[in-house]
Amino acid sequence: MADKKGSSGRGQRDLKVKVKTARGRRLSSTRWLERQLNDPYVKRARAEGYRGRAAFKILELDEKYHFLKPGGRVVDLGCAPGGWCQVAVARVNALGEKKGKPVGTVLGVDLQEVEPIAGAEVHQLDFMEEGADDKVKAWLGGKADVVMSDMAAASSGHKQTDHLRIIALCEAAAELAFDVLEEGGTFVAKVLAGGAEGELQKLLKQRFAKVANVKPPASRADSSEKFVVATGFRAGGAAG
Ligand SMILES: C[S@@+](CC[C@H](N)C(=O)[O-])C[C@H]1O[C@@H](n2cnc3c(N)ncnc32)[C@H](O)[C@@H]1O
C-alpha cells in the first residue's frame, strides 16, 4: 500500500522540480522544461516504455470508445515518435502475443523519420503531398478498421493559421478514412477548438453513426486541442 505521508499534498509539493532560467535559455523553454519534469504523464510514459505522453491520449480514448480490438487494422497518420502506434500494436495484437486472439496490423506514416516500432509498418511521408493517399492505400493493401490522425503542423504562432492547418490535415485524413474504412469502422483525429471544425463535423456526420468531441484527461488543459471520435462508419455512403 502507498505510504500515506509520501502521497500527501505536502509530499507532492516537495517533489516538484523547479528549473532556473539558464543564460541563453528562453523563459518559455524553461517553463516547458519545468512542465515536462512535473508532468505525471511524462513520468508514466517513461515508466511504461511509451515514446511519449501522447500514448495516454489514445489509450484514454480507446478506454471510452473501444475501437482498438484484437485483429483490427489500423492506420496512424502523423505517428512520430510512435506512442499511438505502440498502443495500437498492443491492443490489436499485432505481435500475436495474445494467444488464440486474432492478429491485427498497424500502419504508421509521418513527415519525420520514425525509429522502427515492433509490430508496426512505418513509412516516412508527407500526407499532404500529391498522391499520398494512394501510397497509403497501396501499403495498406485493403480495408482498415480504424484511421486515426494526431497530425499537427509546427505552430506558426498565429492561432487561426494553426487552426486552419490542422483542419486541412483532418479533412485529408477523413477523405482517406472514407475510402478505406470497413463498415462500422472508426475515425479519430486531433482538432484545435477555433470555429472551422464545424464543417468537418458536418462531413463526418454524413458518414458515421456517431460523432463525438472529446478532451481526454491526458490532453493538457491549457491546450485548445481536442479529438473528434467518429464511430459506426457507413461504407455505403451518406446517411439519409
Ligand atoms: C503530436 S505528433 C504525433 C504524436 C504521435 N501520435 C505519438 O503518439 O507519438 C504530430 C505529428 O504529426 C506529423 N505531421 C504533421 N504534418 C504532417 C503531414 N503533412 N504528413 C505526415 N505527418 C505530419 C508531425 O511530423 C508530428 O510527428
TrEMBL record:
GO molecular function annotation: rRNA (uridine-2'-O-)-methyltransferase activity
Binding-site residues for S-adenosyl-L-methionine, renumbered to this chain: G82, W84, D110, D126, D150
Residues making up the signal peptide according to the UniProt record: none
Catalytic reaction list: uridine(2552) in 23S rRNA + S-adenosyl-L-methionine = 2'-O-methyluridine(2552) in 23S rRNA + S-adenosyl-L-homocysteine + H(+)
Domain of life: Bacteria
Enzyme category, top tier: transferase
Active-site residue numbers: K190 (proton acceptor)
Cellular component per GO, a single term: cytoplasm
Family annotation (InterPro entries): RNA_methyltr_RlmE (IPR050082), RNA_MeTrfase_FtsJ_dom (IPR002877), rRNA-MeTfrase_E (IPR015507), SAM-dependent_MTases_sf (IPR029063)
Coiled-coil blocks: none
Keywords: Cytoplasm, Methyltransferase, rRNA processing, S-adenosyl-L-methionine, Transferase
Subcellular location(s) per record: Cytoplasm
Assigned EC number: 2.1.1.166
Domain Ribosomal RNA methyltransferase FtsJ: 50-233
Pfam families to which the protein is assigned, alphabetical: FtsJ (PF01728)
Function: Specifically methylates the uridine in position 2552 of 23S rRNA at the 2'-O position of the ribose in the fully assembled 50S ribosomal subunit.
Family: Belongs to the class I-like SAM-binding methyltransferase superfamily. RNA methyltransferase RlmE family.
The protein, known as: Ribosomal RNA large subunit methyltransferase E
